[in-house]
Amino acid sequence: MKEYWITNSRFKIILIVLFIMWLGVMVLFYLKTDEVTKNPCQICAKQQGVNVICSIWDSSGRQQIFSPDFKIFNTGG
User: Fold this and answer.
1) Where are the beta strands (DSSP E) in the chain?
2) Which end of the chain has less Cβ packing within 10 Å, N or C?
């Protein structure tokens, strides 16, 4: 019978460690969902508690107003 370096107990330990690492990454993604799914101007407005105006610098010169409750208002262009 051939002996392998990774025995059943080592294999289970490796699987548990990898699962804990994966779970940790998923928790970090869950905690950072606002930063991943929202516009930076929305996050800024939420943190400051006031409306924030962001300009899009293209030929139309549009501006967007972001409110603390994640509403977006388009102005100009």
Assistant:
1) 52-55, 63-66, 72-75
2) N
